[in-house]
Every structure is written in structure tokens, then in C-alpha cells.
């Protein structure tokens, strides 16, 4: 797979300003983000923090997941959709395409904003104003904007528009800082697993 990276989606002040009414204005550093794909799936981080290709400067805490186009993207955290762009249909390793990146932005209760970028044309599954829950499908991945291969670009912005480091729950641990070159499996949704166990207990007992 061509696990390429691009940073068309560095979003900052305007969207953040709109979500300040939600803000506690400080990132909840204890929050463990969900991997932004479906239960049972696993993808490689093709570019991590401080990635030499494009995760430098203001993009230094971005994460790229290499995945085929039209992979279902799920919310990494509860929040409210504040911006959706999904009408672009071009992508390539050309900075002139930086502004032609499809993305979804979701504001969290602590005033931070998650950005899911390079989505496929007309691939959004949510609209501005929607309240979404962790694990909910929100879009299909793609290769739009400044990007030289199919992948999902993810980052979280603080209320000041500056990217923040994030920690994830993975199958191995709930305190995972994702590292370039590693593959991460989605551990599943706790409430779904609980539901399964209850069903199993019910079957055994009954
Ligand atoms: Zn990226």
C-alpha cells in the first residue's frame, strides 16, 4: 500500500472560534481516544508525530493511518460536528492541492477539535450540528488534497488552534502514544463487549 501523507487539513482559528461556547479551554489530558476506525480493524501508522514528510511545525502532532479509500472512519471521541467539507475530488503530492482536502471537524466538551482529513468525495456521513458519539461512523476515507496515497490524517487542536498530542486505547493498552510504522488494532467498544457478555451469561444461565 502506498501509505502517503499530506497535511491539507491543518485547521485552526475559525472553526475553533465557533466551538468556544463548549469550551473548558483546556485539553483533558486523561482522555484516551478511540482509534478512528471500526472494531476489529487494524491499520499502520504511516506517519506519526514529527514525521519528516509533512508532520512538522504546526502539524507536529498529526497521525496518518494508511488505509484503502472508502474505509469507514469513526469518531475518536464524543462531540459535535462543526464543519464538513466533502465536495473535492482531487488529490496528489502537490502543495497547490492543499486547499482541496475534504474533512470533518468535531468539537469536544473540553473545547478541543478533532480533524479527520483527506476523506473521499461525498464521503461524509454527518452534517454540521450533529452530535456524534465515540465509535460512530462519520465518513469514508480517501485521498483528497495534498496527499500521495490513500490514508486518514488525524489531529486534535486545542482551543488556541495549536495541535496537541493524543493518547489512544488500543488492543494492547489504553495508554498508547501511536508510533510510526506500527500497526494498531481496534480493541472494540466497551459497551458493545459488555452487551455481548450479558447476552452470553443470559444464554448460559437460561
Ligand atoms: Zn498527515
Notes on the structure:
This protein has 206 residues and is mainly beta. The protein has one domain (13-205): Distorted Sandwich (Glucose Permease (Domain IIA)). It contains two helices and 15 strands. Strands 2, 3, 5, 7, 8, 9, 12, 13 and 15 form a nine-stranded antiparallel sheet that branches. A two-stranded parallel sheet has the order 1-14. The longest helix is centred in the C-terminal third of the chain and has 16 residues, at 190-205. The chain is globular, with a radius of gyration of 17 Å. The structure holds zinc ion. Zinc ion binds at residues 5-7, 47, 54-55, 62, 64, 153.
Helices and strands in order, then pairings?
Elements: H1 13-18, E1 32-34, E2 42-47, E3 63-66, E4 72-74, E5 79-85, E6 91-92, E7 103-107, E8 113-117, E9 131-132, E10 137-140, E11 145-146, E12 151-157, E13 163-164, E14 167-169, E15 183-185, H2 190-205
Parallel strand pairs: 1-14, 6-11
Antiparallel strand pairs: 2-3, 2-15, 3-12, 4-10, 5-7, 5-9, 7-8, 8-12, 12-13
This protein binds zinc ion.
Residues 5-7, 47, 54-55, 62, 64, 153 line the site of zinc ion (ZN).
List keywords for this structure.
two-stranded parallel sheet; nine-stranded antiparallel β-sheet; binds zinc ion; mainly beta; disordered N terminus; 206 residues; Glucose Permease (Domain IIA)
General shape: globular
Structural class: mainly beta
CATH topology: Glucose Permease (Domain IIA)
- Gross CATH architecture: Distorted Sandwich
Spans of at least 5 consecutive residues with low confidence: 1-5, 8-14, 16-23
CATH class: Mainly Beta
In terms of DSSP E residues, the strand content is 25-35%
The hetero compounds bound to this protein are:
zinc ion
Amino acid at each position: 500500500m502506498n501509505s502517503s501523507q499530506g497535511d491539507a487539513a491543518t485547521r485552526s482559528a475559525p472553526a475553533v472560534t465557533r466551538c468556544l461556547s463548549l469550551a473548558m479551554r483546556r485539553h483533558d489530558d486523561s482522555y484516551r481516544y478511540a482509534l478512528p476506525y471500526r472494531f476489529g480493524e487494524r491499520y499502520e501508522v504511516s506517519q506519526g508525530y514529527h514525521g519528516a514528510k509533512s508532520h512538522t511545525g504546526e502539524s507536529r502532532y498529526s497521525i496518518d493511518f494508511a488505509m484503502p479509500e472508502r474505509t469507514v472512519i469513526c469518531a475518536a471521541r464524543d462531540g459535535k460536528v462543526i464543519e464538513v467539507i466533502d465536495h473535492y475530488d482531487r488529490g496528489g503530492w502537490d502543495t497547490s492541492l492543499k486547499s482541496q482536502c475534504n474533512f470533518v471537524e468535531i468539537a469536544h466538551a473540553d473545547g478541543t477539535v478533532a480533524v479527520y482529513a483527506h476523506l473521499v468525495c461525498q464521503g461524509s456521513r454527518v452534517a454540521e450540528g450533529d452530535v456524534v458519539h465515540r465509535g460512530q461512523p462519520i465518513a469514508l476515507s480517501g485521498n483528497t488534497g495534498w496527499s500521495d496515497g490513500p490514508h486518514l490524517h488525524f489531529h486534535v487542536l486545542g482551543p488556541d488552534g495549536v495541535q496537541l498530542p493524543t493518547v489512544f486505547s488500543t488492543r494492547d493498552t489504553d495508554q498508547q502514544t501511536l508510533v510510526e510504522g506500527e500497526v494498531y488494532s481496534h480493541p472494540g467498544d466497551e459497551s458493545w463487549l459488555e452487551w455481548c457478555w450479558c447476552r452470553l451469561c443470559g444464554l448460559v444461565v437460561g
